[in-house]
Every structure is written in structure tokens, then in C-alpha cells.
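In response to reviewer comment 3 from the previous cycle, which asked for concrete evidence that the modeling workflow produces usable outputs, we include below a single protein chain processed end to end. The sequence was submitted unchanged, and the resulting C-alpha cells are shown without manual editing.
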Amino acid sequence: MAQTAHHNSTKNKLLAIEASKNFSAIDTTYINLLNELGNEQLFKNNDSLLLLSKKALSLSKKANYPYGTGESLLGIGQYYAGTGEMLTAILKYEEALLAISTYNFPKLRFRILSDLAMTRSYQGNLAEALATYMTALELAEKEDQKYWMSVAKDNIGSLYSSLNDYDQAIKYYTRSLKIQEALGNDLHSAETQSNLAAALTKAGKLDEALEYLNPSIKIFEKNDKIGWLAFCYETKGQIFIDKGLFNTALKWYEKAAALHEQIDEKKEKVFVLNGMAKAYLGLKNSTLSEQYAIEALTLSEQIKFIEGVQESTKTLYRINKAENNFETSLNYFEHYITLSDSIARKENQLALDLLKTKKSFQQQREALIKENEKALAQQRFYIYLALAFLFIMVVVSLLIARGKKIQKNIINELNKQKKNLELRKEELQFANDTKNKLFSIIAHDLRGPMGALDGLLALLMSGDLKNSEFKALLPKLKADVNNLSFTLNNLLSWGKTQLNGTTTTRTNTNLHRLVNENIVLLHKLSDSKSITIENTLPKKTVLWSDKDQLDIVIRNLLSNAIKFTPNNGKITVGVKDLNGFIEVFIKDTGVGMTKEIQEKILLKDSHFTSYGTNHEKGTGLGLSLCKEMLSRNGGSLQVRSIIGEGSTFYFTIPKGKKGLKKTA
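The workflow returned the following C-alpha cells.
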């Protein structure tokens, strides 16, 4: 009722101005009322919000009114964000910031930054979202606006909550709540309490969550905050699901669903539908549970909400398993596992990006503070110098002479330090790049499969996955473990070379024997695809190389050939004699590569990777490691390939030296 009354009041004011004798459409008061009325339509009638904001924007430009322009563009951005057109919304928010960039409108700037960060968060650019929220928080602290500070901390808390970092989320929500308690803003406190309750629920602190949730519901009911009420009802439903009280949970989810008939929040509706599906499943009502789970799945796919798809497929797997529909159950389970792996990879990368962004922001802020302190210190120095000049004119010449001598010494010392720092910088940069690559590979290609394996074993131990179902997944599980082991070996070898932990000891190496050993090592992989590997090398082929490093090259090239050769293919290993050198080649009948890919994989520090013919995974380290090892042994990697006909990798190595013992 209060909102409707305020809406009518704004509309009446507009009508009164329009009816006045001296009415002017470019009057700033009239433009402000248009924007105010548009803002009242947010989440209620987005079409009205767009029409009013566009009208206000047109009039603001005619009136050369920058505040109205920024406010209007904010409203247009909010419209596109509400309709899911995030990129257009971001462009409008950035246009709004540009429109007010030379003016002192801190409150409007804060609102635009907050909405821009939120939209970037919805778009999935969490690192940019965090940086924007931090900028908004810095603005709030600069203006000493406690309310703005609490809003920014709320938003940062929500960002961490979306990454499942509930400890960080709870920390920021709690800090925001302390500020609001001092301000006495009950409505904003209720919003923060409801977000805090949601984070506590996901962290498993159910009773503590209810302590914050129940007072929030009363305040939202009193103020007719439909969107927030729906969110609270949904959270309360989840609490009772976790407590195993499914009838009570269903009651709260039904209340949330009724409110969603009045608002257009598709993601939140997915959470409600999935919650009702889980509640009915808990009540052993498979029919209704499946109905709501399918509805949630359909809506999630429509709005491309991966987490919603994941949750609904998990419920559908459990429903069909309970109904003994094992084939359908297994299909949903495999879809769920695939999505879980994908989401885990994405969350790992986002968490890494978020950490880098936060660290970078802090470093920039500290650098700015130091720069300001340095400037102030320099100003003080000049003041003192001027005072000293007035009182000790007699000793000026001596001070200048002494100063020049000291300055010269300092410059010489600084030049020495600069050279040392530049050398140190290069070493640190190299070490940092190596660390980042290692972390990236661990996050993308080791943590994901290990997480999927852990989840699978947890399902087996909890009884949700039968032994027969587990055995059906064993071949894929074995392949994943083998791939993980191969990746780990390459990762350790590459990391050792990058950290200068590998020495090259070249001796006479029997290549024929080394190739045979690797064919035996990889026979399970080649046999699984019925691939024939032919070693045409003469038995006495001897190279002058480091045996272990050459072993890594042969193993990776053979593994790559198997990966990109289809079933029933053939791989041939052979040599050419080149007067003191031997050219070794590994030829396959695989899928081949375009010229663009051939050039890309041979670039320095390239880590290009793709899926094999049977969807085998790789890290992109194999060829990089081969290039590194061959370089250490006086060789280089080359490739010839034709799409559909196969690829040939070859390299040239010095022949073995006569009279020396062979190492292999």
C-alpha cells in the first residue's frame, strides 16, 4: 500500500506540472520526476521503466542536464538487466558513468557502479564485478557514507556467496549489518539479514539462519516487499528440506511460488521449482517431484542457467533410481556429473580470477597511498628548504656543494640497485609465470577430475549409487585415472625444467629399444582403439642424447598420435640417416591438422590442447615438454599434416658416438 501511494503521489506531481501554464518539458524538476516514476516501476513494469527513462533521456539531452542523463541511462540499463540483455545493460551503465564523469554526483555514481557490478556478476565476469564493487566501496568510504558502505559490503558478500565461499560472504554481511544497526535502517537490515540467512543455510548453520530469517520476513510483510519475501520463503523452505521436514518445507515453497506469479525473476523461480521437487521426493511423491523437476529443467535450459540444470538433473536421477528406471537414471546421473565437472572448473577459474583482482586492487590502492605520502613528504621538504634558505644564507654554497656530491653518490648507488632490481624482476616474473601455469593446470585438469571421482565415491559410499552402476562407470573411471597419471608426470617433468631442476646428461641411447618400451607402456591405450604401432627402426639405431629426456619425447608423441588417430588406425615410427644426424619421425593415420593449428602448436610457450577422437583430454603440456627436451638435446620439433590423412612429427638428433657404452 505504501508503495502504491508513493507511486500515485509521483504521478500526480507530474500531472500537476504538465497542467501548469508555464510548463516546460525540459524543466529539471519534471525530468527528475520522470526518472523517479520510472524507478518505481523497477521489477513491476519494466516496459514502463524503459519508456519513462527514454523520455527523460531525450529531454535531459535537450536541456543539457548531465544528472538527468546519467539517471535516465541508469534506468535504461536496469531495464535491459531485468530482461536478461546483460551486455546492453553494461554498455548503458558505462555510458551513464561517462555522462557524469566530470561532475560531482557521488550518490548517482555509487548507484551506477553498484548496478554495473551486479550485472557483470550475473554475466559471469566476477573478477570485474569485484573490482567495480571495490571502487564503489572506496567511493562510499571517501564520502563517509555509512549506508553506501553497507550496500557495497552486502554486494561483495553476495558475490562471494555465488562462488560458494560462504565464510567470506558471512563476514561481509555481518560487517554490513553492524553498520545498519548503528543507522537504525530496519528495511535494509532485513535485506542483509535475509542474505546472511541464505549464506548460513548453505554453510549448514540452519538454526542460526532462522534467527535472522524470521525477523526479516515480518519486516518485508509489513513493507510489502514481494521480491524479498519470495526469497525468504524459498530460503526457509531450503532450511526445512535440510532438516528433513518436507511438509513444512513444501508449505514455504508454495508461498514463494505464489509470489513469483507477481514478479519476473526466472532464476529465483528455478530455485523454488527445484525445492518443491526435492520436497515431494522427500514425501515419496515421485509423480509431483518429477513434474516440478522437469519444469525447473525446462526453465533452466531456456534461460541457460547451468546450476539450475545441474540441480534438476540430480533430482531426476534420484526419482528414476527410486522408480527402478535405471537407464533413464544413469543418463541423468551422467549429465549431472558432466555439469558438476564443468561448474567446478568454472568456479576454480573464477575464484582464481577473483583472488587476483582483489590482490591487484589492494596493491593499486597501497601504491596510490604511498605515492600521496611521497608527494606530501616532498612538499614538506620544499617548505623546510625554503625556511632554511631564509635563515642560513651563509652556508648555502657549502650545502649545495655537499648536496651535489651526495646526489652523485646516490645516483650511482641507485643505478646499481636499478640494474640489480631489473635482473631480479626478470627472475621473479619467470617464476611467477611458471607458478600461474602450474596453478592453472592444477585447477583445470587435476582438481576437476579428482572432484568428480570424490563425488562418485561419495555416492557409492552413501548408497545412492549401486555397485552395478559403479562397475558400469569403471572403464571411464580407469581412463580418467590413467589420463590424470600421465598429466601429472608431464606436469612434474615440465615444472622441473622450468624451475631449473633438470640437468641434461647426453650418452649413446638405443632408440629402437626405447621406442619398443613406450609401445609396451602405451599398449592398453592403443589396444582400446585397435591401433597398430609399427617400429621400423633398425635395432642398432643409436642417438647422442639424454635417455630420460628422449624417453619423455617419444612417450608424448606416441600418446598424441594415439589420441588423434581413430579406431583401427596405424602409427609408424621410423628414421632417416642424414650424415652425422638421424631424423626420427612418428607418422599416424589420424584426423590431421590445419596449417593454423600446426603453426600454433610450434610457437614458443604454446600450450594448445584439444580433445582426441574418443574425447580424450589433455593439458597442452605434452608438446611444450617435447620442445623443451629436444632443445636441451640439440634438436627441434617439426610437423607435417593434412586434414583427414594424418600427421607426422619429426626431429633431428646427432648420431651416437663410437666407442661409448649405450644407455638403452
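The first strand starts at residue 507 and ends at 510. We consider this sufficient to address the reviewer's concern, and the full set will be provided in the supplementary archive.
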